[in-house]
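Customer escalation, tier 2.

The customer says the design service returned an amino acid string that "doesn't look like it belongs to this structure." They asked us to rerun it and document both sides in this ticket. The original structure tokens are below, unchanged.
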């Protein structure tokens, strides 16, 4: 068993113990996620962006902010004939030209890669909208008259998914790209609200699938698999587990993993792994069969295997519901592992060292 984890000593139904293990109150942030989404729906860029429909949309972002772009791209894939790309890195790819819309998204506004993407868009005269709660990116947008959505500050970027995502849906709507209908957005808010009640700390393990899954993963490692629609959710679960619970997780996607990764399950270490299938009632019959066969082939090798189902009809609900579930699972996993789910000291230290002037590379 992982030494950082002592499952016997943390009772997930002991609300006082959860409070002690969560000094920054992540439980409140997660419980208020539906309210966050409702506020986010009302946020708009100022000044208004040009209404020309682009040929390509590029969301430039990193980490938790990029997760909102993944969600946007996954929703857009069902509805738009204009591709939505998520660019994680410095500058912009050559595909970003004057007929592209760049959405530079950084919750803190101080992410070097995203600032450099915004600068590249300004230099190339590519239409640009900024989504941020402040920092250098907000200053750049204000100086250059770039349309900007100003988000409420004070959260960890990965916990601001609602603030980051819904304004981007509105930005695309403003350029005649309908990612989701009003009905779909409303449905997603209801689904997220209901889940908040079902997964929170007051809900006991017996009735709480997020607590149950965190306990089942326990001191092992989570291997998350999604299908074509839920692949982005699998990646989001991986990063939430890594940042909140401070333990490695991997994410894979069907059908691709059937062609390579499946072999890794014959390794002796497989017993330490807990497979999580992120399922979607709308997935094609072929994908359903692939999950069933995968279960047959790896079920006996894995330390455990769980299936979690997306909720709702529209794609926004289905993907947001899995994101909410992943947030809570990673939260409980952090508490079981006795680590603070809020702070990210190595990530901060990395940024600090990168920003230090005159640092040589060897
Ligand atoms: C921290 C987090 C990180 C950040 C990333 C980029 O909570 O989620 O993954 O999102 O370091 O920072 P922002 O989102 O501020 O551009």
């Amino acid at each position: 068993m992982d030494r950082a984890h002592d499952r016997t000593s943390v009772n997930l139904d002991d609300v006082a113990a959860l409070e002690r293990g969560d000094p920054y109150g992540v439980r409140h942030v997660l419980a208020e996620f539906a309210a966050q989404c409702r506020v986010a729906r009302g946020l708009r860029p100022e000044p208004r962006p040009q209404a020309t429909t682009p040929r390509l949309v590029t969301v430039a972002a990193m980490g938790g902010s990029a997760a909102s772009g993944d969600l946007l791209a996954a929703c857009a894939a069902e509805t738009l004939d204009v591709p939505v790309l998520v660019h994680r890195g410095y500058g912009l790819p050559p595909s970003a030209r004057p007929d592209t819309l760049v959405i530079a998204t950084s919750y803190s506004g101080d992410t070097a890669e995203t600032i450099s993407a915004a600068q590249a868009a300004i230099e190339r005269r590519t239409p640009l909208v900024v989504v941020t709660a402040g920092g250098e990116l907000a200053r750049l947008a204000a100086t250059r008259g770039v349309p900007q959505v100003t988000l409420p500050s004070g959260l960890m970027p990965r916990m601001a998914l609602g603030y980051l995502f819904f304004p981007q849906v509105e930005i695309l709507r403003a350029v005649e790209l309908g990612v989701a209908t009003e009905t779909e957005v409303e449905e997603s808010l209801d689904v997220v609200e209901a889940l908040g009640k079902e997964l929170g700390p007051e809900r006991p393990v017996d009735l709480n699938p997020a607590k149950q899954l965190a306990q089942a993963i326990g001191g092992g490692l989570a291997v998350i698999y999604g299908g074509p629609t839920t692949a982005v959710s699998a990646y989001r679960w991986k990063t939430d587990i890594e940042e909140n619970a401070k333990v490695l997780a991997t994410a894979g996607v069907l059908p691709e993993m059937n062609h390579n990764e499946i072999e890794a399950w014959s390794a002796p270490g497989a017993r330490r792994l807990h497979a999580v299938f992120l399922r979607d009632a709308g997935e094609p019959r072929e994908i359903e069969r692939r999950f069933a066969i995968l279960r047959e082939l790896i079920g006996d090798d894995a330390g455990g295997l769980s299936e979690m189902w997306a909720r709702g009809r529209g794609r926004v609900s289905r993907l947001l519901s899995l994101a909410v579930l992943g947030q809570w699972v990673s939260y409980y996993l952090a508490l079981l592992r006795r680590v603070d789910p809020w702070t990210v000291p190595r990530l901060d230290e990395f940024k600090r060292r990168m920003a230090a002037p005159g640092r040589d590379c060897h």
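Tier 2 assessment: The sequence is consistent with the input. The longest strand covers residues 100-106. The mean pLDDT is 95. Sent an explanation to the customer and offered a walkthrough call.
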